[in-house]
Amino acid sequence: MAAQTEDEDNEHEPLRKLLSILASPWTLLLLHRLHMEGPKRFGELRRRLGSISTKTLTERLRLLEAEGWISRHYEPTVPPQVTYAITPKVLELDGVMVELDRIAERWYGNQK
After folding, report:
1. What pLDDT does residue 9 have?
2. Predicted pLDDT of residue 83
3. What's the CA gap between 40 and 18, in Å, rounded?
4. Residue 41 burial class via C-beta count within 10 angstroms: exposed 0-12, middle 13-18, buried 19 and up
5. Residue 112's pLDDT is what?
6. Could you give all domains of the chain from N- to C-terminal order, each with its CATH number?
7. Angle between helices 54-66 and 42-49 (to 10 degrees)
8. For residues 31-35, average pLDDT
9. Computed from CA positions of residues 90, 33, 44, 61, in that sequence, does the dihedral angle turn out positive or negative?
10. CA separation for the pair 21, 2 (Å, rounded)
11. What is the side-by-side strand order in the sheet with 40-41?
């Protein structure tokens, strides 16, 4: 087996980065919820995701905001209201999200 050159490794860097973000725990489900259900506040997201911890949800939201995948809208009310939504960038994943939804339903939808 021939060793890969540095150029060949770099050629896969964009895909590696995309997959590393998508593969992090809860990320796809979080994006799916925001994509299918629209903007959500933190507490509502936590309830909709099930057993995700507050710490993990906070970490994922910060990562996705830093990557430009979600937006954070802050309202300085009492208590403050923070709403999260996907950005147009994530809409490029629409076909992937819909297809994963279909596959999940086919594979696991009728299990009880």
Report:
1. 64
2. 97
3. 24
4. middle
5. 60
6. 24-108 (1.10.10.10)
7. 110
8. 93
9. negative
10. 29
11. 40-41, 81-86, 70-75
pLDDT of residue 12: 85
Distance CA 19, CA 72 (A): 23
Coil, helix or strand at residue 108: helix
Q: How does pLDDT run across 73-96, given as a tens digit for each residue?
A: 999 999 889 999 999 999 999 999
For the whole model, what pTM was predicted? 0.81
**Residue 23 carries which side chain, given as an amino acid letter?**
A
| Amino acid at position 42, single letter | F
Total H helices, total E strands in the chain: 7, 3
**CA gap 108, 49 in Å, rounded:** 18
Instruction: State residue 10's pLDDT score.
Output: 77
| Token representation of residue 85 | 């939504």
Q: Which two tokens stand for residue 36?
A: 């299918």
DSSP class of 5:
P
C-beta separation of 90 from 69 below 8 A: yes
Give the C-alpha distances (Å, rounded to integers) separating 43 from 4, 13, 51: 46, 35, 12
